[in-house]
Amino acid sequence: MHIWTIPPETRLPLLKGPVRFAVGTPASLSSNSWRVWTQGQETYVVCRDAYREIKASLHASGTWKVGFTEQAVAASPTLLPEGRDRAWKKWRPDLDDQTKLVIGLQIPFLAQSLFVKPESRSRWRPKVIFIEPPVDPQKMTVVSIGVAPTLSPAAGDPALEGGVIAVLPLGASRSVQLIAHYEDSGSLRQTILSAIPDALAALRERDLLPEDAALFLYGEKPLDIPWVTAIRLREQPGQGKDTTGERS
Question: What is the pLDDT of residue 21?
Fold first, then answer.
């Protein structure tokens, strides 16, 4: 896995936030950019482009949340049906195991997630890290954000291509870590792409289908791991149904 940094000699993993990253390369299409930062012992994850209304919050209290921001709901009340919580998921993970990293959010990036043109990134901060996508079309890039009971980079599966790109301290003995790796897109790809037909039909019915439309999706993987992603909204050949228990 190749990581593009500015300046090029930047050492990884990064030890200070905020961390800004995207999948792609500086000279070609990329995903939206994401920002991860800490505030005391709190951790926050947001998209810095088209989906600023979404935030993941890994609170020091032990309550973790993924959903709409308070500001987004106040500015656009129609985002949220009456009586619904703005958090799509609210949970208390088990952080007592001193041997493992607990993932709070995963962001999978399919090839269809790379649709931001270089000219559209003119206002991006210069220190955005670019994670080069896999050459194999059957694989995708996955960035995991999690909390580890250590200030050292978490040990990963040696069979996976990738590694820890940031370790941000959360006090004296914990850290939030960003891990990027490639994995087979398989069933999750089918889960993501299967959402396209309904989204297209709904937009066409309302005569709201701009050429550059994108679809933002939220889902949960087994082991209570939430994921979010964005893809270009176009018809996809060979869409199938997911049978793995992942849902969106």
Answer: 97
pLDDT digits (tens, 9 = 90+) for 63-77: 999 999 888 888 888
Phi, psi of 11 (to 5 degrees): -85, 140
Strands 19-23 and 129-131: parallel
Query: What end-to-end distance do the CA atoms of the chain give, in Å?
Result: 28
Give domain limits for the chain: 3-232
Q: Which H, E and C letters describe the chain, residue by residue?
A: CCEECCCCCCCCCECCCCEEEEEECCCCCECCCEEEEEECCEEEEEECCCCCCEEEEECCCCCEEEEECHHHHHHCHHHCCCCCCCEEEEECCCCCCCCCCEEEEEEEECHHHCCECHHHHCCCCCCCEEECCCCCCCEEEEEEEEEECCCCCCCCCCCCEEEEEEEEEECCCEEEEEEEEEEECHHHHHHHHCCHHHHHHHHHHCCCCCCCCEEEEEEEECCCEEEEEEEECCCCCCCCCCCCCCEC
Q: What's the maximum distance between 2 C-alpha atoms anywhere in the chain?
A: 54
Residue 77, token pair as written in the block = 């009340």
Q: Does the CA dihedral 20-123-56-141 come out positive or negative?
A: negative
Output the six-digit token pair for 74.
């106040």
The pLDDT tens digits for 125-145 are: 889 999 999 999 899 999 999
* CA separation for the pair 241, 150 (Å, rounded): 40
